[in-house]
Fold:
Amino acid sequence: MKGLWQGADGAAEEKVDPVRGKVAKRLDRLPTGDVLDWADSVGSGLAKALDDYRKQATPESLLEARRGAQSLLGVLDVLSRREA
Structure:
């Protein structure tokens, strides 16, 4: 996830979530149609993880939802670079 995090010295630092970065790197090589198909699949997985969390709030279901959300942000990064 890109965002401002507080570093050890108290200064704001920009970091990228490792899942988001890995996804973007892998998807960069795929055609746009394949990237969108992959995003559809991940989006379904994210919805399922959130539904699982709704039924029983566990750290595992929340982690799975977070990974799905970060993966979708990686997709948006790839698509944004292609539009630039």
Notes: The two ends are 20 Å apart (CA to CA). The chain has three helices and two strands. Residues 18-83 form one domain. The longest helix spans residues 59-83.
